[in-house]
């Protein structure tokens, strides 16, 4: 089992920045690729960003790739999502997730492939 706890969400004005954290406990953290997803009211949960086990490979959705950066500190068992130039369209509950089996390149972008999920953290961007 892997337990994931997100933090860092909150209310921010458009154009502002936030950094989300995902703290992991349980099994060896480096055995898992990690992803961030988000879900806005009435919408499907969508992929935001992913990072490989060692942190050398990353991917991000087109809608955020020029503004959001995913990183991880395996010594601290934590994955981060740095979010810049936020817009109201980024308002959602943000979830981190861990996957044991990875795709070619060490990344997982399909939410159905993730084994463990956190409880989510709310991000609200005001206009």
Question: How does this structure look, described?
Answer:
Strands 2, 4, 5, 6, 9, 10 and 11 form a seven-stranded mixed sheet that branches. Strands 1-3-8-7 form a four-stranded antiparallel sheet, with no helix packed on it. It has no helices and eleven strands. The N and C termini lie far apart (40 Å). β4 and β5 (46-51) form a beta hairpin. With 127 residues, the chain is mainly beta.
Present the secondary structure layout.
Layout: E1 2-7, E2 10-13, E3 18-26, E4 33-39, E5 46-51, E6 58-60, E7 68-73, E8 78-83, E9 92-99, E10 116-117, E11 121-126
Q: What distinguishing features does this structure have?
A:
7-stranded mixed β-sheet; mainly beta; 127 residues; 4-stranded antiparallel β-sheet; globular
Figure out the total of helices. 0
Helix content: under 10%
Main beta sheet strand tally, sense and closure: 7 strands, mixed
Strand content: over 45%
Q: Work out the number of β strands.
A: 11
- Distance from N terminus to C terminus (CA atoms, Å) equals 40 Å
Structural class: mainly beta
- Stretches where pLDDT is under 50 for at least 5 consecutive residues are none
Instruction: State mean pLDDT (0 to 100 scale).
Output: 96
The shape, in one word, is globular
- Helix and strand element order: EEEEEEEEEEE
Gyration radius from CA atoms, angstroms? 13 Å
